[in-house]
Amino acid sequence: MTGEKLDPATFDRTDLTTRHEGPLVLPHDVLFHRLHFLALNSKTSAVKDASRRLDVDYRQLLTDVVAARNRIRSTIGQKTLQSMYHEEEISFVVIAHGYEFVVAFLAVLALGGIAVPTSIHITTEELNHMLRTSRASAIICSSDHVARASSALPARTMEEEYVLISMDGLINQTPIDPHTMTFSSGKTPDPNKPGLIVFTSGSTGPPKGAALRRYNLFVLSILHCWSKNIQPGYATLNMLPTHHVTGLLVNVLPVLVGGGCVEFTDPKFDAARIWDRIRLGGMNMLSAVPTIYVRLLQHWETVLVKLKPEMRESYQAAISSIEQFHCGSAALPVHISKKWTKLCRGRQIAERYGGTEFGNPFAHESTGSMVTDGFFKTGDVAEKHDRNYYIKGRKSIDILKSGGYKISALDVERQILEHPKIAEAIVVGVDDAEYGQRIAAAVVLREVGIWQNA
User: Fold this and answer.
1) Secondary structure, 3-state, 319-380
2) I need a surface site. Which of 25, 42, 89, 362 has the fewest CB within 10 A?
3) DSSP letter for each residue of 374-439
4) Domains along the chain?
């Protein structure tokens, strides 16, 4: 550190020594100690990626993460690198899927940066908004998405040394012996600094960035490991995007910290393909959104129930062997939940409810509209019966007002979906001079053979 000005606010005794870094030097960070331990001791799969036909262990994963970290460090500008050395918050937008995403995400953390994951289908306008909002210094993308990432460059008003970094050639490097890797003797990455920014659309306006500390990423993973008994041999089938909290912080990172295996499906959902994978067995958890559960049930009812009994039983036995089912992003229709429980011979889907934007980004005096009597106002309406709460919907969009009555669109949808002839339904309010709103529904009918046998 000779010749550099020391910052009293962040001073550490290691600032007086030569910076300890190199191509095989890992950050002195608990997450990377864990991954290094697994690379040394685990022979099981860490990540499987159906779209790329990859099956990698922890040694291969850590090798590729180190290679990606080294490329990022050698590609970004010197000003950006010096800013990172001085513990400034530097963001990197990641556009990748499956194994490539995992490698890029961990590489950013290994460098000490902030990962900003995004959809592989993001539009140029959305990407520009995300780049400006996060003040990203680079986009890290898979070779499949270089064109999409490049589309943001002409319109950018970005950081001075902004660059685009391709993951091309970084996957399946020649495995490195973990014994040759060392840990930095320098300063431990600040656990209070952001490690991740997740963009959420929220309720109104353009997407907002919600920052999560490095420490929270690991602690959340450990808590999931404890609660779900994640350990070597544990496996999850991830069908959710990794730029969503559930996809990344429930389905991916905790499983890797626990030493399990994350299996990525093809980005394009295919119910038949998912069922065929489930039939092979070996899954401990399946986490999805309501639409996925609906389509899996539809495939069961339209295709699999028509198979010979022994073949049909092989599918049902496999789905029933999965220990945990999770659902989030929207309310799961009651009739779907009941059908799934019956199909899985008693195993229920656990529904999650959360607010990504929880935190303290506002001054106390500006939170009046959000917090009342110490409670955070989500805008949802619910009823309590005995010890149970029933979510009626978001007040701004799901509560309809007709003839002086407040009516839950979700309740009406649930009742419509109980009809055996109806596969899907959506309920909306249509402006009406007499009633204020009339209740209207658009429905998709089932195939004739299905409802006749329902």
Assistant:
1) HHHCCEEEECCCCCCHHHHHHHHHHCCCCCEEECCCCCCCCCCCCHHHCCCCEECCEECCCE
2) 362
3) TEE--SEEEEEETTEEEEEEETTTTEEEETTEEEEHHHHHHHHHTSTTEEEEEEEEEEETTTEEEE
4) 19-217 (3.40.50.980), 393-454 (3.30.300.30)
Query: Which pLDDT belongs to residue 367?
Result: 47
Q: CB 299: neighbour CB atoms within 10 A?
A: 18
Alpha helices in 7-112 (DSSP H): 30-41, 58-75, 78-85, 98-111
Query: What would the two tokens of residue 24 be?
Result: 């095989």
Handedness of CA 250, 256, 260, 263 (dihedral sign): positive
Q: Give 10-residue mean pLDDT values along the chain (454 residues).
A: 62 71 94 98 95 96 98 94 89 96 98 95 89 92 89 60 91 96 90 92 71 94 95 95 92 98 94 97 93 92 95 97 89 86 94 56 49 67 81 69 76 85 86 78 77 46
Output helix, strand, coil percentages for the chain, rounded to the nearest 5: 35, 25, 40
Residue 397: per-residue pLDDT: 66
Q: What are the pLDDT digits (tens) for 336-354?
A: 899 999 999 999 999 876 6
Q: According to the model, what pLDDT value does residue 232 have?
A: 95
**Cα–Cα distance measured from residue 129 to residue 375, given in angstroms and rounded to the nearest whole number:** 31
Q: Residue 28 in contact with residue 184, Cβ under 8 Å?
A: yes
Give the span between the Cα atoms of 266 and 243, in whole angstroms: 16
Could you give the CA distance from residue 318 to residue 278 in angstroms, rounded to a whole number?
Answer: 6
What pLDDT, on a 0 to 100 scale, did the predictor assign at position 356?
A: 45
Q: What is the pLDDT of residues 158-204, one digit of tens each?
A: 556 789 999 999 999 999 999 999 999 888 889 999 999 998 765 55
Token pair 């339209």: residue: 302
What is the C-alpha separation between 342 and 336, in angstroms, rounded?
Answer: 10
Cβ within 8 Å of residue 124, ≥6 positions away: 148, 151, 152, 155
289, amino acid identity: V
User: Which residue do the tokens 């036909």 mark?
Assistant: 53
The structure tokens 């919600």 sit at 210
Q: Is 450 helix (H, G, I), strand (E, B) or coil?
A: helix
3-state secondary structure of 237: strand
Q: Half-sphere exposure of residue 155, counting CA atoms within 13 Å on the CB side?
A: 15
How many other CB atoms sit within 10 Å of the CB of residue 37? Answer: 13
Q: Confirm if 280 and 273 have CB atoms less than 8 A apart.
A: no
- pLDDT at position 9, please? 66
